[in-house]
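Progress narrative, work stream C.
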Amino acid sequence: MKLIRDNKFKKGVLAVAISAALTGCNWFDDDDDSSSSSSSSSSQSTTFNVSLGNAPQTLASASFDWTNPLVSMMSQAYADTTGLDETNFKVVIVDADGNAVEVFELTADQVEESPAGSGNYVIEAPGVPQLNCVIAVNVDGELIVEAGDSLASSNALFAPTTATDIDVDLESTVAYQQFLETVQTNGGFDAYDVDDPGQVAAVEQLISNVEQQLEALNLEDYLSDANIDLADLLSGEEVVDEEGNTVNFETVLNDAVDEIINEQIDDIQNATTTTIASLVQNGGLNWFWAEADTEFSQDNSPYNKDFDELEVERGAISSTGEVFYEYDFDADDWTEGESFDPTSDDADDDLVLTAEGWVNSSDSIEVVSVNTTEGTVLLQDSAVNSLQLEVSTLQALDLEGKNIEDFLETNADEEDLATFIGSDAVFGAGATGVKISVAAVNDNYTLWYDEGEDDGSCWGNANELAADRGGNCETVWVNNSEGPATALTQLVTDTPSTSDTIFNSTVAVWVDDVLVELVETTEVNEETQATTTVRTAQFFIYGDGNTTLFVPEDGSTPEWSYASPTGLGADESLIVLPIPEELMDEMDSDDDEAVRIFAVHDGFVRPGVFVEAGAVEDEGGEWVFNATAANNIVDAFDSIYQDVFLVDCFYESGWDDNAFEGLGAPVEPNTLKAFEASVNDEECGGVVSGVDADVLTANTWYDDGDEVTFNADGTGSFFEPAETETDTDQTFEFTWSINSTADDGIPNGTIEIVIDTTINEQDLIFTERYAPVGYDAEAGLLSFKAFSTNSIWYFEGSDIPDGTGEIWSGTLSTSQTTSDAGTVTEVPLTAQ
């Protein structure tokens, strides 16, 4: 399993710590009429850690249709969230309509900001996590809400008590509103077991997934591109963007969230009792991992993007070990990679600190125990018994009938894998998925280990040999040094930099693509003359030959320390360096790399990580599957969809005129999924509004000399004038329509043209899909991105796979402009 084999953990606690013993947030008695506010206590209470972080700048155009005006919440979303007290908060039981059924007033000793000024609050609330129980806050003043009031009209932000750690923000409010709409559709909360651990956990995951989706968007960029000022929107006034669309905060939430929410609500209704323990005992658990990163290429290929990384892997873990496969894109097939047999694998992986010192792990997993009661599995490295992981069940689903692509793409860890799945594929009978949490059992200090390539070089560099580095290529370099560091003192300076010129001068350590200056100074108390050693860290972000000092948003000062854990020699220590959370993405760091370490081993300073006992790899969880579901995914996998990652805003036509007896064909076919992704790419602008049937039928259009006519009855024609004296004019009749829904994979607003004809005694069906990406009514220019297919291309043995076609860009014009030479002049692409 990728996450287990790489030991990727995330420091923190389980996002959902709920057992079957939970009884609900029902602090009022069963015979209470629940019609008035209550301040009664309960024999049960829960401590909630509530974070009120400001809304991220992540909102874009939206499709939610609820009646609650989001404008009223925006001042809350961007307000100061510090210094609040018990009057700002309420704990509320709601019904399916979002109305308060019971309101609990908190007292001063039940609300504490911790630490002060952080915007994080510890709230002692009655009851336990439950679907219909929310924590609501008004950051602008006292929260006024009584039984019978609509929570949506209270000018509050809120989140359900589906976990002990809660983010109350705009995303949680949006997600829970949408959840309530689904509750209404399903007949109210009576259709749910409101304190059922599986359903509570599922709604918590719903909130988490919505937050992840919105975090991937950027409101400021969206507004900037459209020349819209945030202050104008916050004022509540309607604003018109560059394309003439009316924008307000009721229309700035992305419709992708709808798909996530619908998928997650469906997950709640399809919960099953399967656990990770039963998977291990019955055929093993199957995992998938995919990563596709692109970069702009410098060649003359049809795309200006190329793959920087393209990897797809899968594996199966059972009581006998792990089998690992990787996809070979050159051979277009799965190949069996390294298998991990705990009885025979060599200990040649990362170094782990044990009581006996640094010991190589084997990277091979063995099952220590299976707890069928708790549904957990204890795993350990076969060479280092202290390197243990506990795998727990967060959620289990019966996947039969669920669309595989939809399921994978609405779970953040599987989004890249979803791209390779055919859009029509569904899970079959008996398919089961289990969402797991993986936590470290013990504190683990790990140094990275790489014994080099087969020729003994480090990363293919013949001038850097593993043998010259103590048999391990993993070393630490100090900036501007001539070789890797051999002592920890080489990494430390007593003179902190005062400018960004660190790249050229100051002692600093390379950590990924960031320079870190480890500063150690001594402070003297003027009264007592006592000395204190102060160790701080300065992070410098490198880019374009320069460095920029990183300053944490909260104004804190990053620190580092020495540690001497058990296993090191009597006079040995190592350096511990926590990475600021804000820098994790900048450094492209995995969750388990949040705390870096540096230690001397075999004569060189080595880099590594520290993972604390209890640290969770992924608070949101990761999905694993039984054999049936895994086989469904493998069968639906198709490498042809890698073109989706390479989509571009403009496509030159790559056409072979001589193919198929002169009918022509694309040189490099593309998939319909790639066409959809290209049109919907935010950087490309998407389908423009204003191009409707009236616009098309009101004009005769010209395309590179061809004449295109759209009739109001849904028919039309292409007229191709003869190019030479021996040619003849040709006219092709077609039918046309404008797509009104994107559910079929074709972008909404796309013009679809179908030509059903016979050429050279061949019955042919040409299909052209024009997605309008730019329209200038005054100039009479319509820019489009097109996807063309021809039925003759698809036969057994053809080089053109079924369903693929050509993506190309062009322009239709209401006037035919010619040059002095009498040939048609290319009309420039507009509004791209």
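Work stream C, second folded protein:
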Amino acid sequence: MPVDEHDESPAPLAPEPESNTPLKFEEAPAAAEGAPAPSPLTPRGWRRVVNRRNAMWTGIVLVVAVVALAVIVFILYRSGQVDRIIARQIVQTFAKYNIRAEVGSFETKFGPRTAELRDLKLYDATTGAQLGKIDRLIATIRVEDMYALSLSRDVNLEELTIDGLEAWVAFDAEGRSNFRNVRLPPPDPNSRILFSYSTAKIGLNGAVIHYDDKRYDISGEARNLRAFIRPEDLNAPAESRMNLVEVALSGSSFVYNGRAVDNIDIEAKARVNQVRAEIGELTLRSPVAEARLSGVLDDWRSLRYRMQVEAAGDLTRISDVLQLEATMRGAGKLSGTVSGEGDKYKVEGAVISDALAFDNVRLKALNVTATVTGEGSSYEAQGRAVAELLTAGDFQLNTVQLAGKVMGTGTDFRWVGDLRAAAARSGAMSIAGLILSDATAELRGEDLSGSAGSFSASSVVAEGARIAGAQGSGVRFSRDAAGRTTFSAQSARAGQITADGTTVNGVQASGVNATINPDESASVTVDRVNVGGVSASGVRTGTLNIAGVRLGITSGGRVEVTSGDVNAGAVALPDGGRAENVRLARPRFVLEPGGRYRASADLSLGGGVLGQMRLGSARAAVVATNNQIQLNDFVADVFNGRATGRATISTAPRGGGTSSVAASFEGVDAGGLIATFSARAVPLTGAATGTVNLSFPGTNFKAASGRLDARFEGATGRDDSARTPLTGELALTAARGLFQIERANLRTGATELTASGRFSFDGGTDLAVNLNSTDAAELQRVALGTGLLSDIEEKVKDFGAELAGNLSFKGTV
């Protein structure tokens, strides 16, 4: 029913504008000054604008618009247009990271708010290299306040499942990664979607990671990778909420320098948040080693951690699998704690192994306790190592104790500490009670050097020689890259040295320097050697001072030793004899590879005593070899006379070799000369002058060959009233122990003897003897006192026979 009379009347139509005439909008003319203002709409005017017909049409339009919009959205969704739009959005998002993405398919589901993406491939947008691919990705999200009148939304990721991930990580020879072109876009402050994944459940199934590093020739594959991440307590504050993480991989491989280790398995369980990680268990299993770790990573940003480690390794399998140049055998266990922050670390633990071998180095019953600290490539280790046995080639240490610390960077290191070994052996040399104190060893590149403040050994045995109480100080050694080794010692001492019946006491050496070349040649110098005394074959010396000792060893094994003059002082001889002022000039010793030696020196002595006879000064060029001793060009004031010539004394075993003497003598006491061979005081005196040229096997004078000519002239000029003077002459020849007397005219105070013919100490004597004595007792005393008639002397003693009065004999003996 009309409310106003004008409601039903049609309104006049506005005039139509001409088709080509543009519409013009002009301001309404201002009301004339003083004209009344337009009156406001009255309720009757509002009813003309808002009436039931207009309201109905407006509602119909809105319903149709909503239905149409729903139909359009449904058609777009069913036709896949929505999925394609979102897929393009995903591709555009990856492009912001400089990653080219290819999406195989994308599907959304409104019911559980789930999106499924298949066959996603990712490439470097610059190089085109493939970075990774995903077979399937399923994500479930939750939109907070979806129907709120706001243009921004908070989207929470509830669950994410990734199947069939495969990724490639590579570094070239310059260390550049295949991800080097990926960049992070700047944050968008006007983004209307705030994405959160802090409470998401994330699962990774069947992933494969390929790794290749050309810098260090390392590559590998992590296969069958599975990972699960879920929040421990959804109600916990976000800043302290812990996530439970489980990671596992199996059948993986690791390749180093072309050598592969397969069947590597890793399992890890941890509690992780934004700040720290608690690792409940991390287990690594492989054919070569097995390790278990647990601990805490306190701070992700500073990388502060503390871990307990239990590991076991099989060096035999490591050597076989990796085919290393150094052959390794054995197994070992590690137990300890690893802690650190950033590139700083500290390891405290112990290593135990029943048996280990590295090439020709072997260790038995090894036990190492140590603390290692480091930063980057620099490290310092301090601890103690004990081994029952250490061998390196023919070198062996028993019950080894090593204590100290090692400092280094990379392959360079320096060790400072002490070394103790119950026994050491190298070839034919063995050392007992070895101790090195304040020792150092340093390796820089291929140069090795070391030192020891002091060393000691209770005994050293080598080649039949034994050194007791060896000590030294200020020891240094070095070896360069060419294999040249040098050794020096400020001082060295030995309590006693014994070898082949020779004993040397109180040896002290100073200024010892040695060089060993790669061809095994060597040289040794000693500034000074002091010897307390030497005892050999009943001969004893006093203190010896030797300067300038030089030793050289050729690559063929020939050894040569020289030194300055040796002053031996007084030398005690067997049976109470003594040589005084003994001096060796220009001594030289040569040892050939076959074991033959030659020692030479110019020998001089100032005098001495032999038995009851005094010896004068003497000098000679002495040469000693394995088989003989030569006295060349000797000049001796001996037995109150003088002798010159040469002599050779055989020292060959079992009486082999030949001894000889070729000399001239003048004024030599005959009694003293005979005493030399009989080793007894002879009651006879006489100045003998003549020549001798005899040779005999070994030291068997009774089997001599040669000639002797002598003239005796009674007393020697001293008070020899207790001895019988001898005058006359003697000439004889000898052939293998058969002596032929050419002439023998000998006279004493009461006896005269002439003889000719031959005689032998082994029988076959045929002498024509003419003996006249007015004092038979004198004859008996002189003849038996020489010791040359030992058999007759024994029989005379047995019968108690004594001669007296006149005695005359002429006949054949």
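The mean pLDDT is 78. No further action is required on this item.
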